[in-house]
Amino acid sequence: MEKMNLNNLKDKIKQIVLDEGAKLVGVGNQERLKDAPPSGNMDYCLPGAQSCIIWAYPNPIEALENYFSKKERMSIKKAQQIGYAGAWRTALIISEFIEKNSDHKAFPVIPNAKYRPREDIPDYIKGDIRYPDFSLRYGAVAAGLGHLGWSGNLVTKEYGGSLYLGGVLTTAPLESDPMAKENHCNKCKICSKVCTTGYFSENEQEDMQPVIIGGFKETYAKRGTFSQCGIGCAGWYGLSEDGTWSTWTPGHLCLKEFSEKDWSNHDFRRNLFNKILADNTIPENIRKFNQVIARSFGKVAALENVGLRPFTDTNPRCGNCNFICIADPKKRKELYNMLINSGKVYIDKEGREFVKKDDKNGNEITYYPPTENEFFTKEEFSNR
Ligand code: SF4
Ligand code: SF4
């Protein structure tokens, strides 16, 4: 079979990625990542890799409005499934395409939930931090899609940071796209305000290790302990500091009340997980809710690939720092206002979630957002 030249190969790869539903795609190289932390080293996944092809799927605005106002969370569930499962499916298609049409090797990057073994991480690094085999965020910066924002997420000009990334590494020396000139994070710090766990600082910059990509230093907020985000993002706990709004969880505890010292203590973290999953003083419906989340997470951990997560186990309950960071700063503030006026999520005895909030006149209202079965048609559901 005749092999493609590198320019045609690159053009065709980009076209396939866009045809598969991504909205942004770029190509970067190992040279730009040579001074990045270890997760920027492509050789770890594919010895001799020279290029990374990285793409992105943004969250639809209407889905975000519904999510933050607590009208429904099923549209974001769908967007997340498209983002992760789509990223993985496309990575497999592109890898196969490169290997069929050139003499080069390719490696599909798992979009999330695959981490390097702990031994690889130096001792001085705190807590329970984990690093991915290859960082799609670093790759995206190298591929010209954007720069890291205060949240540590990639922020693009076109869609901000409210997106999902996919990627492939290859030994093909594809021509790189230009790096993004500007960083479109405007340091509004809304990402930090919408986090109920205190995982990243509103004022302090992370200084653990420099992130240098293409000769530029990327800066972002100081991080706490991985479990902080783990617990909040999973949906076990999520309550604002003033107690007026929650994430999509009945776990009404604000994790910001614990100190950095608490979080870095292994026993503290173990006791907190015990409380979440096995404390008999917690109402049974909440305990069951927590255990369902634990089972979903267990499945993804065993798969080591969020791209293979079943649709029923895809249940975004926080993700706020990423979701809220849309490109338009005015609209971002609107989403923030929706969130802080969205009330709190509870579950009833049967385990069904409902929302309590005050209406415009200050009267408390209660409603049940649509469930998975109510929201999706049977056909939509079985196609996931
Ligand atoms: S929400 Fe604001 S501060 Fe945070 S990453 Fe986005 S633009 Fe930057
Ligand atoms: S996903 Fe939620 S809990 Fe985790 S850092 Fe972002 S806002 Fe905080």
Biggest sheet: strands, sense, closure? 4 strands, antiparallel
Strand content of the residues, in percent? 15-25%
The tally of beta strands, per DSSP, is: 13
Shape designation: globular
The DSSP helix count reads 13
Give the helix level as a range of percent.
25-40%
Poorly predicted sequence stretches spanning 5 or more consecutive residues: none
Instruction: Give the quaternary arrangement of the chains.
Output: single chain
From N to C, what is the helix and strand string? HEEHHEHEEEHEEEEHHHHHHEEEHH
CA-atom Rg in angstroms = 21 Å
Number of domains: 1
**Which small-molecule ligands are present, each listed once?**
iron/sulfur cluster
What is the structural class? alpha+beta
Distance N terminus to C terminus?
Answer: 35 Å
Mean pLDDT: 94
Query: How is the largest sheet built, in terms of strand order?
Result: 1-2-6-3
Account of the protein in words:
The chain is of the alpha+beta class. The protein has one domain (6-227, 320-367). The protein has 13 helices and 13 strands. It has helices spanning 6-19, 61-69, 74-101, 136-142, 190-193, 226-234, 260-263, 266-278, 284-303, 320-323, 329-340, 372-375, 378-382, and strands at residues 24-29, 51-58, 106-109, 147-148, 154-155, 163-170, 200-205, 211-213, 216-218, 221-223, 344-347, 353-358, 364-367. The strands form 5 sheets. The protein has a 4-stranded antiparallel β-sheet, sandwiched between helices. The mean pLDDT is 94.
